[in-house]
Specification:
Strand order of the largest sheet: 4-3-2-1-10-9-8-7-6-5
CATH topology of the largest domain: Rossmann fold
Strand content: 35-45%
Shape: globular
Number of helices: 9
CATH superfamily of the largest domain: von Willebrand factor, type A domain
Radius of gyration: 29 Å
CATH architecture of the largest domain: 3-Layer(aba) Sandwich
Number of strands: 40
Distance between the termini: 47 Å
CATH class of the largest domain: Alpha Beta
Length: about 675
């Protein structure tokens, strides 16, 4: 499988090594995770894409298709009929239909071939990725199993031509060894090229979904021709034309349910899938006395009702009830609750005779893993307290001065929380450094970004290096007319910086799709959240609507910070026509309309973020200074966020919409965003 021959055009410059520095496991440590890929494979012609036909379809006149790209796709097609994968002697071997062999070492280091190409391998569970690079070109091959078939996705990125993506599906040949078992680790899906994503249905903060809901999808792979919708493993709908969305009826009363989508090409090949869990309850560990009521008829005892929030995967071992410091009752028959997470109601009784003003009830809740929390309440004067259902709510809050500078170091006494017209006390205020940050960065890698690419990439890498604390994590998304998860969530800044080096600016722009795709990456991860979008603001290729991204960001607590590098008109010096031929002179075209800027401003304001504009035609030193200043302002916003916690009386499953005010003069609450989890 010598893909190097496809890059052998004499006009290409000599190869350079892409220093990825990946933290993914090397083959020596993880060859068992790709054991299921080993063996001999034969191309399934019925469901595989034809590289030559797909390349020709990029041009309005197929006869004028680029000679270089046509040659590349023809070379690939000749070599993809058969494939053999093996791991031998610390090296991974791939042999193609032409009996050409590529061997890559287990330590992930790069290997050069006689054509000047550099090859490198990386592995995630159940997935093998081979990268072939030279200046201005990048070819990425991703191999993974799906429904017993081997899927091979080839992506070609170039500075001069449209990006290409081919899917080849293989069946095992008759002489193949028995298939190994894939690991159960679901992280393997992050290494695969994204095809489809579920946009979580609209809901209020802490609201549980029930009844009829609209389920929407984000289509990443444009070869998708139909989508199946499944609920709890049962097929409910199959939609055969865009937009791929459908109403579904959820359980009443609400409960945890699994929502899945499976996407197929027009020819019936499986393209990809996504899965989310609706109404997933995974609270932070907590205990709260919610009711103290007299025990009828004589009032000699009081019943104490306690609500315990149990994190998913943890087990509630016991709840102990004390009058003052004397243990009165222990409830330890709690195995029936299991370890599914959620809220537990436990009742105990205490003697209530001869109460004094100093008498109190104290309750401790203990988990199986040893964690323990307590709550206490004076008994005098509260024996007729009505039962109240409470849940702990977390809010991400940004406070600014009159000039707009963010303010940190505030305490619970500085805030006023109002819910349903009633004031609520802030139980806890955490500073930004006390709550880990989940940072997303979505980068526009379209052709119009090329003039500022090297400077921007350098500053973005420095920002990541200086902004992430030890417990923080970040992910990278790049988008042109397609969308890619460049790097899943990681705390490794060297990995993030190395992935930035992998990008090649080219193609169109699917800005809204890129934003929406980035937002769904956060899923149910705990912590503060923020998304940075670097773009020239033009959107000509998105399938989703701008309102989808802004609304989803607002209800999930993700502020969007836009760095706008757009121009009203741009010159394409020595450009190429849409058919890939040299234009011979500079071309002027409209870059965007005022609507593009207005949409970004609205999305930033609606989500609690900001819009920063930078003129890309500034002299390089001035441009770099402007970019650094913008990243510095974003860093200050992130470092001065607060996380407020308070107890809500709203029933479990009901939407919560609190108001937050800051009590210090001269300060204003800029944004209040809900957080589902803070661990």
């Amino acid at each position: 499988m010598n893909t190097a021959t496809t890059f052998a055009s004499p006009h290409l410059a000599s190869s350079v090594l892409f220093l990825l520095g990946l933290t993914s496991p090397t083959f020596g440590a993880t060859d068992a995770s790709i054991a299921a890929l080993e063996g001999s494979w034969i191309r399934n012609e019925e469901v595989s894409e034809d590289p030559v036909q797909k390349t020709a379809s990029l041009w309005r006149d197929p006869e004028r298709a680029s000679v270089a790209l046509t040659g590349l796709s023809t070379s690939l097609a000749e070599r993809m009929g058969r494939l053999r994968i093996s791991v031998e002697g610390g090296r991974v071997r791939l042999r193609n239909a032409e009996h050409e062999v590529v061997e890559l070492p287990e330590d992930g280091s790069a290997v050069a071939d006689q054509y000047g190409n550099r090859h490198r391998a990386s592995v995630l569970p159940g997935t093998l990725e081979i990268e072939t690079a030279r200046p201005g070109w990048l070819l990425i091959e991703t191999f993974y199993l799906q429904s017993g078939q081997l899927h091979r996705v080839i992506e070609v990125q170039s500075e001069r031509f449209p990006n290409l993506r081919f899917l080849t599906v293989y069946e095992r040949s008759g002489d193949a060894p028995p298939m190994a078992t894939l690991p159960a680790d679901d992280t393997s899906r992050f290494a695969r090229p994204a095809a489809i994503r579920i946009v979580p249905p609209r809901r209020g903060h802490h609201e549980l979904l029930t009844g009829r809901v609209e389920v929407e999808t984000l289509i990443v792979d444009r070869t998708i021709g139909s989508v199946e919708f499944l609920l709890d493993g049962r097929r409910r709908r199959r939609i055969r034309k865009p937009p791929f969305r459908t109403p579904l009826n959820l359980a009443q009363p609400p409960r945890e349910q699994a929502l899945e989508v499976r996407a197929y090409s027009i020819r019936g090949a499986f393209v990809g899938e996504d899965r989310i869990v609706l109404n997933r309850i995974d609270p932070r560990f907590g205990v709260r006395i919610v009711a103290v009521t007299p025990h009828e008829p004589d009032g000699a005892y009081v019943d104490v009702d306690v609500r315990v929030a149990v994190p998913r995967g943890a087990g509630l071992e016991r709840v102990a009830f004390y009058r003052n410091e004397q243990l009165v009752e222990t409830v330890d028959d709690l195995a029936r609750y299991g370890a599914t997470g959620g809220f537990r109601r436990v009742r105990g009784s205490l003697p209530a005779l001869d109460l004094s003003q100093q008498d109190y009830v104290r309750v401790t809740a203990s988990l199986v893993d040893g964690r323990e929390l307590e709550d206490a309440q004076l008994l005098e004067g509260v024996t007729f307290k009505g039962e109240v259902d409470v849940q702990l709510v977390h809010l991400q809050v940004l406070v600014v001065e009159a000039e707009g500078a963010p303010v940190g170091g505030l305490t619970a006494a500085d805030f006023r929380i109002v819910e349903d017209g009633e004031p609520k006390a802030a139980e806890e205020v955490q500073q930004a450094g006390e709550v880990p940050l989940l940072l997303g960065m979505a980068i526009d890698s379209s052709a119009s970004m090329k003039p500022v690419w090297n400077q921007l990439r350098s500053v973005a890498g420095t920002f990541l290096e200086t902004s992430l604390a030890a417990e923080d994590r970040a992910f990278l998304v790049d988008f042109d007319e397609s969308i890619r998860l460049l790097q899943p969530l990681t705390g490794s800044t060297p990995t993030l910086k190395a992935r930035l080096e992998r990008l090649i600016p080219n193609g169109g722009t699917a800005l809204n799709d890129g934003i929406l795709f980035s937002l769904v990456q956060y899923e149910n991860e705990p912590g503060r959240r923020a998304l940075i979008v670097v773009t020239d603001g033009m959107d000509i290729d998105s399938r989703s609507e701008p309102e989808q991204a802004a609304g989803f960001a607002e209800r999930t607590g993700i502020p969007i910070y836009f760095i706008d590098l757009g121009r009203d008109r741009i010159a394409l010096v020595n450009g190429h026509t849409p058919d890939g031929e040299s234009a011979g002179a500079s071309l002027m075209r409209t870059a965007r309309s005022g609507d593009h800027v207005l949409r970004m401003r609205q999305q930033a304001q609606q989500s609690g973020g900001r819009l920063f504009g930078i003129d890309p035609e500034l002299p390089p030193p001035d441009f770099l200074d402007e970019v650094r200043q913008v990243f510095d302002q974003i860093r200050e916003d992130l470092r001065r966020q607060h996380v407020l916690a308070y107890y809500s009386n709203r029933p479990v499953g009901a939407a919560i919409e609190p108001g937050v005010q800051v009590l210090r003069d001269g300060l204003t609450v800029k944004s209040v965003l809900p957080l589902d989890r803070v661990d």
